[in-house]
Design brief:
15 strands; 5-stranded antiparallel sheet; about 200 residues; mainly beta
Amino acid sequence: MSCPTPEISPGGVRTAKISIVSGNFLDLSSLHFSFLVRNEEADAAEGAPGHPLLPLSAIPHSFWRRIRISVNGAVVEDLNFANRVEEQISRFLSTNKRRNVGDAGFGWEYLNDSNTRQLTNHTVHHSTMVGQSKTVRTGRAVRVTWRPLGLGFLQTSKFLPMLGGAASGLCIELEAASLASLPNAILCAKYTKTLICAPCALKKS
């Protein structure tokens, strides 16, 4: 497995290409993406904290605009506006399943069926938000794990023969959302971020 662009950002290199060539069968139901999300916002003057990174959802799909999968050179999946599609599909999950999926990502600050947050002496109602993700503080990085829900190719529950490297194998391209589209996917625009695609970006369990 290789990833020639291990570090991507919305203002720089935006596409990570992951290639897997093997002589075994690949269990598509076990594939997950794991990557680091770093908040590069600097602290303000006199030690005041900078802007925290607040994702739209604890499920780390809001950073990706497009996902493209090809097998031996043939395109089998090409999903545009992946962040929007993934968010829509995730809303159909049960609360407990959505909580589990989000805990593998950034983790939830709160998530419940009544869409409320209980404070010390009163309850806050949120009419436009289903749960809220935990934030990433300035200068910190969080490793998240994510399995796309909108990719039909990964939902087939089939074993993929890798043909022993005789062909180009499995290739997955992830395109990060641009700076112009980030306010539509992230609930905080005053920050910069770098996504680091480590060698374990695609895991097979």
